[in-house]
Protein backbone atom coordinates (compact mmCIF):
# COMPACT_ATOMS: atom_id res chain seq x y z
CA UNK A 1 0.00 0.00 0.00
CA UNK A 2 1.27 3.46 -0.90
CA UNK A 3 2.04 5.13 2.42
CA UNK A 4 2.37 8.74 1.30
CA UNK A 5 -1.36 8.74 0.52
CA UNK A 6 -3.65 8.46 3.57
CA UNK A 7 -5.26 5.09 4.21
CA UNK A 8 -8.88 5.39 5.31
CA UNK A 9 -10.73 2.53 6.97
CA UNK A 10 -14.53 2.54 6.65
CA UNK A 11 -16.42 0.45 9.21
CA UNK A 12 -20.01 -0.81 9.30
CA UNK A 13 -20.66 -1.65 12.99
CA UNK A 14 -22.32 -4.53 14.80
CA UNK A 15 -26.00 -4.45 15.75
CA UNK A 16 -27.10 -5.15 19.32
CA UNK A 17 -30.80 -6.01 19.37
CA UNK A 18 -33.49 -8.57 20.08
CA UNK A 19 -33.82 -9.23 16.35
CA UNK A 20 -32.07 -8.19 13.14
CA UNK A 21 -32.20 -9.49 9.57
CA UNK A 22 -30.57 -8.53 6.30
CA UNK A 23 -33.73 -7.36 4.60
CA UNK A 24 -31.71 -5.66 1.84
CA UNK A 25 -29.78 -3.63 4.40
CA UNK A 26 -26.46 -2.21 3.30
CA UNK A 27 -24.59 0.93 4.48
CA UNK A 28 -25.18 2.84 1.25
CA UNK A 29 -24.01 6.15 2.72
CA UNK A 30 -20.76 4.70 4.07
CA UNK A 31 -19.91 2.94 0.82
CA UNK A 32 -20.72 6.12 -1.08
CA UNK A 33 -18.15 7.95 1.06
CA UNK A 34 -15.64 5.18 0.40
CA UNK A 35 -16.19 5.61 -3.33
CA UNK A 36 -15.69 9.37 -3.09
CA UNK A 37 -12.47 8.89 -1.12
CA UNK A 38 -11.22 6.41 -3.69
CA UNK A 39 -12.10 8.77 -6.54
CA UNK A 40 -9.84 11.37 -4.89
CA UNK A 41 -6.87 9.02 -4.75
CA UNK A 42 -7.02 7.88 -1.12
CA UNK A 43 -6.27 4.30 -0.09
CA UNK A 44 -9.50 2.69 1.08
CA UNK A 45 -10.31 -0.37 3.20
CA UNK A 46 -13.64 -1.67 4.45
CA UNK A 47 -14.72 -3.73 7.44
CA UNK A 48 -18.33 -4.94 7.56
CA UNK A 49 -19.16 -6.23 11.03
CA UNK A 50 -22.48 -7.48 9.61
CA UNK A 51 -20.87 -9.43 6.77
CA UNK A 52 -22.93 -12.57 6.11
CA UNK A 53 -20.27 -13.76 3.66
CA UNK A 54 -17.16 -13.33 5.75
CA UNK A 55 -14.35 -15.73 4.84
CA UNK A 56 -14.77 -17.51 8.18
CA UNK A 57 -18.57 -17.68 8.02
CA UNK A 58 -20.54 -20.75 6.88
CA UNK A 59 -20.83 -20.84 3.12
CA UNK A 60 -24.10 -19.52 1.72
CA UNK A 61 -25.45 -18.29 -1.59
CA UNK A 62 -25.52 -14.47 -1.80
CA UNK A 63 -28.23 -14.67 -4.48
CA UNK A 64 -30.68 -16.79 -2.49
CA UNK A 65 -33.97 -15.16 -1.46
CA UNK A 66 -33.26 -12.18 -3.71
CA UNK A 67 -30.08 -11.55 -1.69
CA UNK A 68 -31.71 -11.39 1.76
CA UNK A 69 -30.77 -13.59 4.69
CA UNK A 70 -30.10 -13.89 8.44
CA UNK A 71 -27.08 -12.37 10.14
CA UNK A 72 -24.84 -14.43 12.35
CA UNK A 73 -25.67 -13.75 15.99
CA UNK A 74 -24.14 -14.18 19.42
CA UNK A 75 -26.30 -13.90 22.58
CA UNK A 76 -25.09 -11.15 24.91
CA UNK A 77 -26.32 -9.49 28.10
CA UNK A 78 -29.33 -7.22 27.84
CA UNK A 79 -28.78 -3.50 28.40
CA UNK A 80 -29.68 -2.11 31.85
CA UNK A 81 -33.42 -1.58 32.11
CA UNK A 82 -34.30 -4.33 29.64
CA UNK A 83 -33.46 -7.34 31.82
CA UNK A 84 -37.12 -8.36 32.15
CA UNK A 85 -37.89 -8.42 28.42
CA UNK A 86 -38.70 -12.09 27.62
CA UNK A 87 -36.53 -12.28 24.52
CA UNK A 88 -32.89 -13.09 23.74
CA UNK A 89 -30.59 -10.13 23.14
CA UNK A 90 -27.74 -10.65 20.67
CA UNK A 91 -24.79 -9.14 18.88
CA UNK A 92 -25.58 -9.49 15.19
CA UNK A 93 -22.67 -9.85 12.80
CA UNK A 94 -19.25 -11.44 12.65
CA UNK A 95 -17.54 -12.97 15.67
CA UNK A 96 -15.38 -10.65 17.78
CA UNK A 97 -12.30 -12.78 17.11
CA UNK A 98 -12.89 -12.51 13.36
CA UNK A 99 -12.89 -8.73 13.58
CA UNK A 100 -9.72 -8.85 15.68
CA UNK A 101 -7.93 -10.99 13.09
CA UNK A 102 -9.11 -8.84 10.19
CA UNK A 103 -7.75 -5.74 11.89
CA UNK A 104 -4.46 -7.49 12.70
CA UNK A 105 -4.01 -8.31 9.01
CA UNK A 106 -4.67 -4.74 7.86
CA UNK A 107 -2.09 -1.95 7.44
CA UNK A 108 -2.49 0.78 10.03
CA UNK A 109 -5.00 3.35 8.76
CA UNK A 110 -4.60 7.11 9.02
CA UNK A 111 -8.32 7.69 9.64
CA UNK A 112 -11.19 5.43 10.70
CA UNK A 113 -14.75 6.32 9.69
CA UNK A 114 -17.66 4.52 11.35
CA UNK A 115 -21.32 4.79 10.39
CA UNK A 116 -24.44 4.39 12.52
CA UNK A 117 -28.09 3.58 11.86
CA UNK A 118 -30.96 3.17 14.35
CA UNK A 119 -30.52 5.31 17.46
CA UNK A 120 -31.18 2.33 19.74
CA UNK A 121 -28.41 0.34 18.03
CA UNK A 122 -25.80 2.64 19.52
CA UNK A 123 -24.36 -0.04 21.90
CA UNK A 124 -23.15 -2.02 18.87
CA UNK A 125 -21.62 1.15 17.42
CA UNK A 126 -19.82 1.90 20.68
CA UNK A 127 -18.49 -1.66 20.96
CA UNK A 128 -17.22 -1.48 17.38
CA UNK A 129 -15.44 1.83 17.97
CA UNK A 130 -13.83 0.45 21.11
CA UNK A 131 -12.61 -2.69 19.30
CA UNK A 132 -11.13 -0.74 16.39
CA UNK A 133 -9.47 1.86 18.58
CA UNK A 134 -7.92 -0.86 20.72
CA UNK A 135 -6.18 -2.22 17.62
CA UNK A 136 -5.22 1.19 16.27
CA UNK A 137 -4.52 3.50 19.24
CA UNK A 138 -3.90 7.07 18.25
CA UNK A 139 -5.65 6.82 14.88
CA UNK A 140 -8.43 9.45 14.69
CA UNK A 141 -11.93 7.97 14.54
CA UNK A 142 -14.89 9.80 13.01
CA UNK A 143 -18.53 8.78 13.54
CA UNK A 144 -21.41 9.74 11.26
CA UNK A 145 -24.76 8.42 10.15
CA UNK A 146 -28.31 8.41 11.48
CA UNK A 147 -27.60 8.04 15.21
CA UNK A 148 -24.77 10.57 15.05
CA UNK A 149 -27.10 13.07 13.37
CA UNK A 150 -30.24 12.64 15.46
CA UNK A 151 -28.46 12.33 18.83
CA UNK A 152 -25.34 14.31 18.13
CA UNK A 153 -24.57 15.49 21.66
CA UNK A 154 -25.11 12.01 23.09
CA UNK A 155 -22.76 10.57 20.47
CA UNK A 156 -20.12 13.23 21.12
CA UNK A 157 -20.22 12.57 24.86
CA UNK A 158 -20.39 8.77 24.94
CA UNK A 159 -19.33 7.15 21.64
CA UNK A 160 -15.56 7.24 22.12
CA UNK A 161 -15.07 8.71 18.64
CA UNK A 162 -12.68 11.64 18.21
CA UNK A 163 -15.05 13.40 15.83
CA UNK A 164 -18.81 13.13 15.40
CA UNK A 165 -20.35 14.75 12.35
CA UNK A 166 -24.04 15.25 11.65
CA UNK A 167 -25.96 15.36 8.40
CA UNK A 168 -24.92 14.44 4.89
CA UNK A 169 -21.30 13.39 4.82
CA UNK A 170 -20.56 13.65 1.12
CA UNK A 171 -19.67 17.32 1.01
CA UNK A 172 -17.95 17.20 4.40
CA UNK A 173 -15.78 14.17 3.60
CA UNK A 174 -12.81 15.90 2.01
CA UNK A 175 -12.73 18.49 4.79
CA UNK A 176 -12.78 15.74 7.44
CA UNK A 177 -9.98 13.84 5.72
CA UNK A 178 -7.90 16.99 5.32
CA UNK A 179 -8.38 18.05 8.94
CA UNK A 180 -7.59 14.63 10.40
CA UNK A 181 -4.74 13.56 8.10
CA UNK A 182 -3.29 16.86 6.91
CA UNK A 183 -3.69 15.67 3.31
CA UNK A 184 -5.93 18.03 1.33
CA UNK A 185 -7.25 17.57 -2.19
CA UNK A 186 -9.51 19.58 -4.44
CA UNK A 187 -12.91 18.17 -5.50
CA UNK A 188 -12.65 16.04 -8.65
CA UNK A 189 -16.34 16.24 -9.55
CA UNK A 190 -19.31 18.55 -9.05
CA UNK A 191 -20.82 17.71 -5.66
CA UNK A 192 -24.01 19.54 -6.67
CA UNK A 193 -24.61 17.19 -9.61
CA UNK A 194 -26.22 13.88 -8.49
CA UNK A 195 -25.14 12.20 -11.73
CA UNK A 196 -21.47 13.06 -11.16
CA UNK A 197 -20.99 10.97 -8.02
CA UNK A 198 -19.04 7.73 -8.31
CA UNK A 199 -20.89 4.45 -7.87
CA UNK A 200 -20.98 3.34 -4.20
CA UNK A 201 -18.11 0.94 -3.48
CA UNK A 202 -20.10 -2.28 -3.19
CA UNK A 203 -17.10 -4.05 -4.72
CA UNK A 204 -15.39 -3.71 -1.32
CA UNK A 205 -17.81 -6.35 0.01
CA UNK A 206 -16.96 -10.05 0.07
CA UNK A 207 -20.10 -10.73 -1.98
CA UNK A 208 -22.47 -8.57 -4.00
CA UNK A 209 -25.79 -10.39 -3.89
CA UNK A 210 -27.86 -7.27 -4.46
CA UNK A 211 -27.26 -3.56 -5.01
CA UNK A 212 -29.15 -0.70 -3.34
CA UNK A 213 -30.09 2.27 -5.50
CA UNK A 214 -30.89 5.81 -4.41
CA UNK A 215 -32.31 7.60 -7.42
CA UNK A 216 -33.61 10.57 -5.45
CA UNK A 217 -33.15 12.17 -2.06
CA UNK A 218 -35.60 13.72 0.34
CA UNK A 219 -39.37 13.44 0.67
CA UNK A 220 -42.14 15.96 -0.07
CA UNK A 221 -44.19 14.70 2.88
CA UNK A 222 -43.65 15.54 6.55
CA UNK A 223 -44.99 12.61 8.54
CA UNK A 224 -44.80 13.27 12.31
CA UNK A 225 -43.05 9.99 13.08
CA UNK A 226 -40.40 10.18 10.32
CA UNK A 227 -36.94 11.79 10.32
CA UNK A 228 -36.44 11.84 6.56
CA UNK A 229 -36.61 15.64 6.40
CA UNK A 230 -33.87 15.90 9.02
CA UNK A 231 -31.58 13.28 7.55
CA UNK A 232 -32.08 14.21 3.88
CA UNK A 233 -33.26 17.83 3.74
CA UNK A 234 -32.27 18.36 0.11
CA UNK A 235 -34.52 17.14 -2.71
CA UNK A 236 -32.69 15.95 -5.82
CA UNK A 237 -33.07 13.39 -8.60
CA UNK A 238 -30.62 11.36 -10.64
CA UNK A 239 -31.29 11.15 -14.35
CA UNK A 240 -32.75 7.87 -15.68
CA UNK A 241 -29.64 7.42 -17.84
CA UNK A 242 -27.27 7.65 -14.87
CA UNK A 243 -29.36 5.17 -12.84
CA UNK A 244 -29.54 2.66 -15.66
CA UNK A 245 -25.80 2.98 -16.31
CA UNK A 246 -25.23 2.06 -12.65
CA UNK A 247 -27.60 -0.91 -12.92
CA UNK A 248 -25.91 -2.10 -16.11
CA UNK A 249 -22.45 -1.84 -14.51
CA UNK A 250 -23.30 -4.10 -11.57
CA UNK A 251 -25.08 -6.55 -13.84
CA UNK A 252 -22.14 -6.68 -16.25
CA UNK A 253 -19.27 -6.81 -13.76
CA UNK A 254 -20.77 -8.76 -10.84
CA UNK A 255 -23.75 -10.54 -12.36
CA UNK A 256 -26.17 -8.78 -10.01
CA UNK A 257 -29.84 -9.43 -10.72
CA UNK A 258 -31.52 -7.88 -7.67
CA UNK A 259 -31.68 -4.12 -7.16
CA UNK A 260 -33.25 -2.39 -4.18
CA UNK A 261 -34.62 1.15 -4.20
CA UNK A 262 -33.65 3.11 -1.08
CA UNK A 263 -35.58 6.25 -2.09
CA UNK A 264 -37.80 7.79 0.57
CA UNK A 265 -40.26 8.91 -2.10
CA UNK A 266 -39.57 6.90 -5.25
CA UNK A 267 -42.95 7.60 -6.87
CA UNK A 268 -43.24 11.28 -5.98
CA UNK A 269 -43.11 13.48 -9.10
CA UNK A 270 -43.50 10.26 -11.07
CA UNK A 271 -44.22 12.01 -14.36
CA UNK A 272 -40.74 13.52 -14.43
CA UNK A 273 -38.78 10.86 -12.52
CA UNK A 274 -40.21 7.39 -11.80
CA UNK A 275 -42.10 6.89 -15.05
CA UNK A 276 -39.16 7.86 -17.33
CA UNK A 277 -36.84 5.79 -15.13
CA UNK A 278 -39.00 2.66 -15.36
CA UNK A 279 -39.37 3.11 -19.11
CA UNK A 280 -35.58 3.35 -19.48
CA UNK A 281 -35.10 0.21 -17.38
CA UNK A 282 -37.58 -1.67 -19.57
CA UNK A 283 -35.72 -0.57 -22.70
CA UNK A 284 -32.09 -0.96 -21.61
CA UNK A 285 -31.85 -3.43 -18.70
CA UNK A 286 -34.68 -5.94 -19.01
CA UNK A 287 -34.81 -9.23 -17.13
CA UNK A 288 -33.76 -7.93 -13.68
CA UNK A 289 -35.57 -7.91 -10.33
CA UNK A 290 -36.40 -4.79 -8.33
CA UNK A 291 -37.56 -4.36 -4.75
CA UNK A 292 -38.91 -1.47 -2.64
CA UNK A 293 -38.46 -2.13 1.10
CA UNK A 294 -39.04 1.58 1.72
CA UNK A 295 -42.73 2.36 1.54
CA UNK A 296 -44.18 3.52 -1.77
CA UNK A 297 -46.74 6.31 -1.54
CA UNK A 298 -50.13 4.79 -2.21
CA UNK A 299 -51.57 7.88 -3.84
CA UNK A 300 -48.95 7.76 -6.60
CA UNK A 301 -49.78 4.22 -7.77
CA UNK A 302 -51.87 4.57 -10.93
CA UNK A 303 -52.64 2.05 -13.65
CA UNK A 304 -49.74 3.48 -15.68
CA UNK A 305 -47.19 3.34 -12.84
CA UNK A 306 -48.29 -0.15 -11.81
CA UNK A 307 -47.96 -1.43 -15.38
CA UNK A 308 -44.50 0.12 -15.75
CA UNK A 309 -43.31 -1.43 -12.48
CA UNK A 310 -44.57 -4.85 -13.52
CA UNK A 311 -42.90 -4.63 -16.94
CA UNK A 312 -39.65 -3.35 -15.40
CA UNK A 313 -39.42 -6.43 -13.17
CA UNK A 314 -40.51 -5.28 -9.71
CA UNK A 315 -40.94 -8.31 -7.47
CA UNK A 316 -41.34 -6.97 -3.93
CA UNK A 317 -43.51 -3.94 -3.23
CA UNK A 318 -44.08 -2.27 0.12
CA UNK A 319 -46.82 0.34 0.39
CA UNK A 320 -47.08 2.96 3.12
CA UNK A 321 -50.56 3.05 4.64
CA UNK A 322 -49.72 3.21 8.36
CA UNK A 323 -53.33 3.17 9.65
CA UNK A 324 -56.94 3.32 8.56
CA UNK A 325 -57.71 5.64 11.48
CA UNK A 326 -56.99 8.66 9.30
CA UNK A 327 -60.37 8.03 7.68
CA UNK A 328 -62.23 9.00 10.86
CA UNK A 329 -62.63 12.30 12.71
CA UNK A 330 -59.22 11.94 14.39
CA UNK A 331 -57.28 11.93 11.15
CA UNK A 332 -53.68 10.79 11.52
CA UNK A 333 -52.28 12.56 8.48
CA UNK A 334 -53.39 13.46 4.98
CA UNK A 335 -51.01 11.27 3.02
CA UNK A 336 -53.53 8.66 1.88
CA UNK A 337 -56.92 7.10 2.58
CA UNK A 338 -58.50 3.66 2.53
CA UNK A 339 -60.17 4.47 -0.80
CA UNK A 340 -56.79 5.35 -2.30
CA UNK A 341 -55.30 2.12 -0.96
CA UNK A 342 -58.08 0.14 -2.65
CA UNK A 343 -57.45 1.99 -5.91
CA UNK A 344 -53.68 1.43 -5.73
CA UNK A 345 -54.01 -2.29 -5.03
CA UNK A 346 -56.54 -2.59 -7.84
CA UNK A 347 -54.03 -1.01 -10.24
CA UNK A 348 -51.29 -3.39 -9.06
CA UNK A 349 -53.48 -6.47 -9.51
CA UNK A 350 -54.61 -5.26 -12.91
CA UNK A 351 -50.93 -4.95 -13.91
CA UNK A 352 -50.23 -8.55 -12.84
CA UNK A 353 -48.98 -8.32 -9.25
CA UNK A 354 -50.13 -10.89 -6.70
CA UNK A 355 -51.35 -10.06 -3.20
CA UNK A 356 -48.22 -11.58 -1.63
CA UNK A 357 -46.03 -9.15 -3.60
CA UNK A 358 -47.93 -6.10 -2.37
CA UNK A 359 -47.18 -5.73 1.33
CA UNK A 360 -48.76 -2.84 3.19
CA UNK A 361 -47.01 -1.39 6.25
CA UNK A 362 -49.26 -0.79 9.26
CA UNK A 363 -47.86 1.03 12.28
CA UNK A 364 -48.31 -0.66 15.64
CA UNK A 365 -47.47 0.72 19.06
CA UNK A 366 -47.82 4.36 18.08
CA UNK A 367 -49.11 6.87 20.66
CA UNK A 368 -52.86 7.31 20.26
CA UNK A 369 -53.39 4.09 18.28
CA UNK A 370 -54.53 1.12 20.33
CA UNK A 371 -54.38 -2.50 19.19
CA UNK A 372 -58.02 -2.49 18.11
CA UNK A 373 -57.11 0.27 15.64
CA UNK A 374 -54.31 -1.87 14.24
CA UNK A 375 -56.64 -4.86 13.86
CA UNK A 376 -59.19 -2.71 12.02
CA UNK A 377 -56.46 -1.51 9.66
CA UNK A 378 -55.43 -5.12 9.01
CA UNK A 379 -58.95 -5.90 7.83
CA UNK A 380 -58.94 -2.86 5.54
CA UNK A 381 -55.73 -4.07 3.89
CA UNK A 382 -57.01 -7.61 3.49
CA UNK A 383 -60.28 -6.37 2.00
CA UNK A 384 -58.27 -4.36 -0.51
CA UNK A 385 -56.51 -7.55 -1.63
CA UNK A 386 -53.01 -6.89 -0.26
CA UNK A 387 -50.85 -8.34 2.53
CA UNK A 388 -50.73 -6.49 5.87
CA UNK A 389 -47.25 -6.12 7.41
CA UNK A 390 -46.95 -4.75 10.95
CA UNK A 391 -44.30 -2.06 11.38
CA UNK A 392 -43.56 -1.51 15.04
CA UNK A 393 -43.16 2.13 15.97
CA UNK A 394 -39.81 3.38 17.21
CA UNK A 395 -39.81 6.90 18.69
CA UNK A 396 -37.29 9.03 16.81
CA UNK A 397 -35.67 12.10 18.40
CA UNK A 398 -36.33 15.49 16.78
CA UNK A 399 -39.46 14.30 14.93
CA UNK A 400 -42.76 16.04 15.56
CA UNK A 401 -44.08 12.98 17.41
CA UNK A 402 -41.09 12.73 19.77
CA UNK A 403 -42.61 14.77 22.59
CA UNK A 404 -45.88 12.83 22.41
CA UNK A 405 -43.93 9.57 22.41
CA UNK A 406 -41.99 10.61 25.50
CA UNK A 407 -45.22 11.28 27.38
CA UNK A 408 -46.77 7.99 26.27
CA UNK A 409 -43.76 5.76 26.94
CA UNK A 410 -43.29 3.68 30.06
CA UNK A 411 -39.54 4.25 29.62
CA UNK A 412 -37.43 7.38 29.99
CA UNK A 413 -36.66 7.82 26.28
CA UNK A 414 -34.59 10.92 26.90
CA UNK A 415 -32.30 9.13 29.35
CA UNK A 416 -31.26 6.26 27.11
CA UNK A 417 -31.94 5.76 23.37
CA UNK A 418 -31.95 1.99 23.89
CA UNK A 419 -35.50 2.36 25.23
CA UNK A 420 -36.67 3.49 21.77
CA UNK A 421 -36.24 -0.05 20.42
CA UNK A 422 -39.34 -0.94 18.44
CA UNK A 423 -39.16 -4.52 19.73
CA UNK A 424 -40.26 -3.15 23.11
CA UNK A 425 -43.25 -1.26 21.70
CA UNK A 426 -42.12 1.49 24.09
CA UNK A 427 -45.28 3.56 23.67
CA UNK A 428 -47.71 0.69 24.19
CA UNK A 429 -50.67 1.18 26.52
CA UNK A 430 -50.69 -0.36 29.97
CA UNK A 431 -53.23 -3.04 29.03
CA UNK A 432 -51.03 -4.30 26.19
CA UNK A 433 -49.40 -7.71 26.66
CA UNK A 434 -46.69 -9.60 24.79
CA UNK A 435 -49.39 -12.07 23.75
CA UNK A 436 -50.94 -9.25 21.73
CA UNK A 437 -47.90 -9.30 19.46
CA UNK A 438 -48.48 -12.96 18.66
CA UNK A 439 -52.16 -12.26 18.07
CA UNK A 440 -51.24 -9.36 15.75
CA UNK A 441 -48.84 -11.48 13.71
CA UNK A 442 -51.36 -14.29 13.41
CA UNK A 443 -54.10 -11.89 12.31
CA UNK A 444 -51.85 -10.64 9.51
CA UNK A 445 -51.23 -14.18 8.29
CA UNK A 446 -54.79 -15.52 8.32
Automatic annotation (TrEMBL):
<feature type="domain" description="B12-binding">
    <location>
        <begin position="12"/>
        <end position="187"/>
    </location>
</feature>
<feature type="domain" description="Radical SAM core">
    <location>
        <begin position="205"/>
        <end position="436"/>
    </location>
</feature>
<dbReference type="InterPro" id="IPR051198">
    <property type="entry name" value="BchE-like"/>
</dbReference>
<dbReference type="InterPro" id="IPR013785">
    <property type="entry name" value="Aldolase_TIM"/>
</dbReference>
<keyword id="KW-0408">Iron</keyword>
<dbReference type="Pfam" id="PF02310">
    <property type="entry name" value="B12-binding"/>
</dbReference>
<keyword id="KW-0479">Metal-binding</keyword>
<dbReference type="InterPro" id="IPR007197">
    <property type="entry name" value="rSAM"/>
</dbReference>
<dbReference type="Pfam" id="PF04055">
    <property type="entry name" value="Radical_SAM"/>
</dbReference>
<dbReference type="GO" id="GO:0051536">
    <property type="term" value="F:iron-sulfur cluster binding"/>
</dbReference>
<dbReference type="InterPro" id="IPR006638">
    <property type="entry name" value="Elp3/MiaA/NifB-like_rSAM"/>
</dbReference>
<dbReference type="InterPro" id="IPR036724">
    <property type="entry name" value="Cobalamin-bd_sf"/>
</dbReference>
<dbReference type="GO" id="GO:0005829">
    <property type="term" value="C:cytosol"/>
</dbReference>
<dbReference type="InterPro" id="IPR058240">
    <property type="entry name" value="rSAM_sf"/>
</dbReference>
<dbReference type="GO" id="GO:0046872">
    <property type="term" value="F:metal ion binding"/>
</dbReference>
<dbReference type="GO" id="GO:0031419">
    <property type="term" value="F:cobalamin binding"/>
</dbReference>
<dbReference type="InterPro" id="IPR006158">
    <property type="entry name" value="Cobalamin-bd"/>
</dbReference>
<keyword id="KW-0411">Iron-sulfur</keyword>
<keyword id="KW-0949">S-adenosyl-L-methionine</keyword>
<dbReference type="GO" id="GO:0003824">
    <property type="term" value="F:catalytic activity"/>
</dbReference>
<protein>
    <submittedName>
        <fullName>B12-binding domain-containing radical SAM protein</fullName>
    </submittedName>
</protein>
